Amino acid sequence: MPETGPEAIETIADAGSFEAAGALVSDADPVGYPTYRDALERARERSGSREAVLAGSASIGGVPVEVAALDFSFMGGSMGSAAGELLARSLERAAARRVPFVLRTATGGARMQEGMASLVQMPKIVGARVELARAGLPFVAVLGHPTTGGVLASLASLADVTIAEEGATVGFAGPRVVERATGRRLAEGSHTAESALAAGLVDAVVPGADVRASAAAALSIFASEPGRPPGPPPEADGAGRDPWESLQRVRSESWPRGPDLARGLSGSFFELRGDRAGADDRACVTGLATVEGAAVVLLALDRARAPGPSAYRKATRCIRMAARLGLPVVTLVDTGGADPSETSEAGGIAWAISELFEAMLSAPVPVVSVLTGEGGSGGALAFACGDVLLAYEDAVFAVIAPELAAEILWREPARAPEAARLLKMGSGDLLRLGICDAVLGGRPSGGSLRAAVAYHLARLGNETAGAARDAARRQRWRHVCG
């Protein structure tokens, strides 16, 4: 663990790239706390720093950034009025310079010796983060050991990409405070970077030596530039294919799965983990990616798992991030439907699906959806209602799985093939009904998928943007099958 601000900067910034911004030193003693001024002087002598925040310009992986680091050797990296002001100014410089903001934390939270003057730094720095978001600029946080209290519960938790250092203590309250407040010992492994990853609260946990490389991987995607788009992909008509036979093909073990297709589609991929509400449902893999050089937010369903509430909340989180940063969205759809279990129901599955529909239909960025296998009911459609819906020729989309349709309609599951044909669920039917916009021939592959997605992203990018973009998308779905 780096103990000083300069050491923390060295772990994240390219060697020799950091230039500190003007120092801000406050000798204020807002509540007249006994010995506070003496404690400040001792902290300065011990750490060699003037305050608990060191900030300025740097590069990470060659990408220009504004970086701020919390200095744990200075009063435990606590946030008083001067530290809060330094963080707010650093965020404002990032917005003014039009560069990403990177935060490296090692903090015990608020500086108690400043009383409420310390606590009100939380809305101050969140307000500055809002301005960075409105400028459409990325925010990457690296959570060091420890990261607790007001810094975590304000600025650090609002990052677009969150990387935690292996073994770091991460939690709203520090373990000692928790045990004192609750009268119970913490469970083994609680309040750690690893438990935060398992709970869907961070995107990655990496060794301290790898934090620069991990941050650079995400920043390189944000900084990518699209190349020359390909021409229109070859299309099929999907006619004459038996939907039941197609369903058996796309359900087979040999059919490509969404996460594998996502990585084959991408030039670079940085996975975004978790719903930030306590879970990370692997039925939906999400991440930052490049498609022919263009940065996108990519959502891929894995048909091996039925998505539960967390999968939909994770997707919604990522789409809102894409909207904030002006990144197109690509979704790969292959699922028999949402998880209907009691646990899923208690977790608010219907609410989570509806929120994803809303996010998809209101995102002011291009959204390209590709049906790569099976689409089952509203649980799949929530991932599919983009500006463009493409379908592979063996892909199917049904109001309900044909086995369940046969049970509901006739109480005869053996009539599932008949139900599949009656439901008109094949790609040719989707095209005829105006539900999908084009049918792609053959099996899904990274090459065919990349060409089709890149073409439609470029086409949509040349059309209306912002509010007009999502208004057009809502009109598309307003009049489908109308």
What does this structure look like?
The protein is of the alpha/beta class. The chain has 20 helices and 16 strands. Strands 1, 2, 3, 4, 5, 6, 7 and 8 form an eight-stranded mixed beta sheet that branches. Strands 9, 10, 11, 12, 13, 14, 15 and 16 form an eight-stranded mixed beta sheet that branches. Helix 11 (258-265) crosses helix 19 (446-461) and helix 16 (402-410) packs across helix 17 (416-422). The mean pLDDT is 94.
Q: pLDDT below 50 for ≥5 consecutive residues: which ranges? A: none
Shape: elongated
Helix/strand-derived category reads alpha/beta
Percent helix among the residues?
40-55%
With helices defined by DSSP (H or I, 4 residues minimum), what is the helix count? Answer: 20
| Distance N to C terminus | 61 Å
The gyration radius over C-alpha positions equals 25 Å
Largest sheet: 8 strands, mixed
Q: Kindly state the mean pLDDT as a whole number?
A: 94
The share of residues in extended strands comes to 15-25%
What's the helix and strand layout?
Layout: H1 5-12, E1 19-20, H2 36-47, E2 53-60, E3 63-70, H3 81-97, E4 101-107, H4 116-119, H5 121-134, E5 139-148, H6 149-152, E6 161-165, E7 170-171, H7 175-182, H8 193-198, E8 204-206, H9 211-222, H10 243-251, H11 258-265, E9 269-272, E10 284-291, E11 294-301, H12 309-325, E12 329-335, H13 342-346, H14 349-362, E13 367-376, H15 377-381, E14 388-392, E15 396-398, H16 402-410, H17 416-422, H18 427-432, E16 438-440, H19 446-461, H20 467-478
Parallel strand pairs: 3-4, 4-5, 5-6, 5-7, 6-8, 11-12, 12-13, 13-14, 13-15, 14-16
Antiparallel strand pairs: 1-2, 2-3, 9-10, 10-11
Helix pairs in contact: 3-5, 11-19, 12-14, 16-17
